């Protein structure tokens, strides 16, 4: 639905010559402040939109399918947070396009894998790392001047923060996951000390020692009687 909306807006802009780029973010100008909410829906060319379309489709699908509980909040947080950062700190120019949201979602999925450390989140993090690791250079000002590298950088930063904020939200399919992907419900954990060692009082530990000694002595007595009988 989001992708269809973006294409419809671009079609209307081209057919009706609406000049929608003025709805982008223009940093530190109040006339450009509404662009925080509108700029992700505006693109400069069909090629610009096409370059964002596949990542948007892949990443929003991941969010809806695997992070359903936080998908909407995360998407809005990334969009608005990135827009605010661009408005505050970016170059004086119109900043448009959904690429900041794309970088935010990539960062969200990757860092969620780092923070949650369950099998699902780690696999998803590795997938986005493989797909989009080559895009890191676009987060710095050594790219074409008509590319909003600030949107990419701030999007990635906001995505990281959003992943941290929602890291403790447990999805329904994560309830049976352990912290480590190499453990499962059948794994027997070995500990050097009993887990309740420091919860017991000195008297409780002393009585446990006496009981253990009693059991040991009783076992030795039974063994001696059996040896004498034989």
Structural features, described:
- Helices cover 59% and strands 0% of the residues.
- Helix 4 (71-89) crosses helix 5 and helix 5 packs parallel to helix 7 (149-165).
- The model has no long low-confidence stretch (mean pLDDT 86).
- The protein is built from eight helices and no strands.
- The protein has helices at residues 2-16, 35-38, 46-66, 71-89, 99-116, 119-132, 149-165, 202-229.
- It folds into two domains: 2-174, Rhomboid-like (Rhomboid-like fold); 197-229.
- The chain has 230 residues and is an all-alpha fold.
Q: What is the count of helical runs?
A: 8
Q: Main beta sheet: strand number and arrangement?
A: none
Shape: elongated
Instruction: Provide the residue-averaged pLDDT.
Output: 86
Strand content: under 5%
The CATH homology group name of the largest domain:
Rhomboid-like
Please tell me the total number of domains.
2
Low-confidence stretches: none
SSE blueprint:
Elements: H1 2-16, H2 35-38, H3 46-66, H4 71-89, H5 99-116, H6 119-132, H7 149-165, H8 202-229
Helix pairs in contact: 1-3, 3-5, 4-5, 4-7, 5-6, 5-7
In short:
This protein has about 230 residues and is mostly helical. It is built from eight helices and no strands.
